[in-house]
Write a structure and sequence with these properties.
By secondary structure, the protein is α/β, with parallel strands linked by helices. The protein has one domain: Response regulator (Rossmann fold, 3-Layer(aba) Sandwich). Helix 2 runs parallel beside helix 3. It is globular and about 35 Å long. The mean pLDDT is 94. Strand 1, helix 1 and strand 2 form a beta-alpha-beta unit. Helix content is 43%, strand content 18%.
Length: 120
């Protein structure tokens, strides 16, 4: 499976990737994107099986990315890995079509619980 990790922080993208590996989910093909605009282009060119996106990014936020994808008919499974995990934000994410929200800080168990059935 191919997974896009979108976050404006290179360090955070690496932390997400490391945590996925610790959760036993690191054997997939991972593509990094530095913001929503980059992710949108890579989703078009890479046809991923899953997108893991930060919420707050420059140029195009994660929620804007998700809404753009859905408006264009792209139904790629999409989830947020973000520092914001309020109930309001979770409701916005769900209403826009996100599968779930993983709030930072997270653990390998958090990823395994959320993605264990998705990334097989």
């Amino acid at each position: 499976m191919k997974v896009i990790i979108a976050d404006d922080s290179r360090v955070m993208r690496q932390i997400v990737l490391r945590t996925l590996r610790q959760a036993g989910l690191g054997h997939h093909d991972f593509v990094e994107a530095e913001d929503g605009v980059d992710a949108l282009a890579k989703i078009a060119s890479e046809s991923p099986d899953l997108v893991l996106s930060d919420w707050n990014m420059p140029n195009m936020t994660g929620i804007e990315l998700l809404r753009e994808l859905r408006a264009g008919g792209n139904q790629v499974p999409f989830a947020f890995v973000t520092s914001e995990g309020s109930d309001d934000m979770r409701q916005l994410a769900e209403a826009a079509g996100a599968m779930f929200v993983i709030a930072k800080p997270f653990t390998a168990d958090t990823f395994q619980d959320a993605l264990g059935r998705v990334l097989v």
